[in-house]
């Protein structure tokens, strides 16, 4: 669904049908995270991560931190692979172990190296 910021995100949900007024982020949130607000979608990295990595084993957890006096909110993302149960250092790239299992990916990387 399209977020208030105009990006496509699988975790965003809204319902304004017949007088309803419901907007929510259905991503898993860290226990210490502040409450979600629609303006948090503006700087959220989740839509870019989902666009770059379509792995079915990717799990994301967001942590929203409020800035000084409520201004300058920051959203951070922790990612891990359900299949290998490892933390993913760069969610845009994906799980290193899953990437090793794909032979086509290494062929693609070698072809890029040959071009450069």
Account of the protein in words:
- The chain has 116 residues and is of the alpha+beta class.
- It has one domain.
- 22% of the residues lie in helices and 24% in strands.
- The chain is built from three helices and six strands.
- The strands form two sheets. It has a four-stranded mixed β-sheet with strand order 3-4-5-6, with no helix packed on it. It has a two-stranded antiparallel sheet with strand order 1-2.
- The N and C termini lie far apart (38 Å).
- The mean pLDDT is 89.
Which descriptor suits the 3D outline? elongated
Number of domains: 1
Major sheet details: 4 strands, mixed
Unreliable runs, pLDDT <50, ≥5 residues? none
Counted by DSSP, the helix tally is: 3
Instruction: Kindly state the percentage of residues in helix.
Output: 10-25%
Question: Percent of residues in beta strands?
Answer: 15-25%
DSSP E strands, number: 6
SSE ordering: EEEHEEEHH
Summary, kept brief:
It is built from 3 helices and 6 strands, in the order βββαβββαα. It is of the alpha+beta class and 116 residues long. The chain has one domain.
List keywords for this structure.
116 residues; 24% strand; alpha+beta
Write the layout of secondary structure elements.
Elements: E1 12-15, E2 22-25, E3 28-29, H1 46-52, E4 58-65, E5 74-81, E6 86-87, H2 96-101, H3 103-115
Parallel strand pairs: 3-4
Antiparallel strand pairs: 1-2, 4-5, 5-6
């Amino acid at each position: 669904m399209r977020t208030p910021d105009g990006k496509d995100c699988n975790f965003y949900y809204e319902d304004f049908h017949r007088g309803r007024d419901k907007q929510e982020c259905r991503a898993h949130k860290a226990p210490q995270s502040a409450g979600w607000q629609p303006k948090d979608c503006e700087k959220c990295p989740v839509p870019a991560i989902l666009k770059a990595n379509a792995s079915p084993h990717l799990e994301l957890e967001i942590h929203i931190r409020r800035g000084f006096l409520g201004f300058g909110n920051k959203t951070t993302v922790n990612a891990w692979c359900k299949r290998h149960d490892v933390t993913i250092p760069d969610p845009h790239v994906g799980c290193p172990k899953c990437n090793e299992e794909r032979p086509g990916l290494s062929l693609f990387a070698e072809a890029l190296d040959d071009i450069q």
